[in-house]
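Full entry
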Amino acid sequence: MLRREFIPALGLAGALSQLRAAGGMKLGSVSWNFHSLAPGAHPEKAIDIIGSLGFAGVELIANSRRDVDEYWTDATISRINKQLERNKLVVPQFPMFQPVVEGLTSRQADERNVSLDYFEAGCRIGKKLGAPMVNIVAPWARELSASSGYLPRYFLDDPKPGEKFHINIAQGYDGDELWQNFTVTMKACLERAKAHQMRFSIENHTHTMIPVTDSFLRLWDVVRDPALGCNLDCGWAMNQREYPPLAIRKLNRRLLNLHIRDIDATMRDYVAIGDGVMDFNAIVASAKAIGFEGFLTLEQDSSKTDMKEVCRRYLKIMRANLA
């Protein structure tokens, strides 16, 4: 039986198992598709849902420093590992949400060091969960701020007459100094990840130190270590008017993980899978072209469509493209 005939015959669970055994691309979901990113939001219910839907992997996350200190204990990790095993799920990477490591771009060495320590705490948690790498969204300069709080999400939904798009830039902002400190700090993060036999993936978001693929490649040219790679978020790439299939080919061997979502025709709002203009077929084709064998992980922002239905659509669409 040919592979293209074999996968439909297996059904969804069998197809994913066959892909996993063959070392090909795998389909995952972030746990926060089913919980918030607020401190104290935990993944247990999400793991069971994601496992029941037929995914091969789930990304878990450290939401806050409080969760690093109080939730991700050895007892919690032991319980979560048993739950992952029951659901036949692996953890492709362990992300740390921005508040955990926001001081990585501080001009104050002590503040950077605190964030580095929390980054290493995330490495220890991820290692115990069996994750091969840790992940952060690229931090932004502490001199930048917006009313949204989360700088990448500063959009004007319904501007008042005369209102302008604005980001506060504090006095003392120095782009050259910032980049120099950033490269040094990212090297320090990488060394801490490697000390735990892990790789380190950085994710692109608008207005951060890594808004687009070329920004990551600029960093990589300084670091030049295969343990450092990019977690390409295809939705945030489209926010920046960057075409994800091209970004994948530019990243090539430096691509460690993919976050997949759909987007509307204005390239701004993340709509439910199948309702937007994201070219999933071209994304998979580019990933195949560079020999990518990692995870294509669904990260869906809040949607009017039921999240389980969004996941089922995603599995159906991506399964067809992978086949």
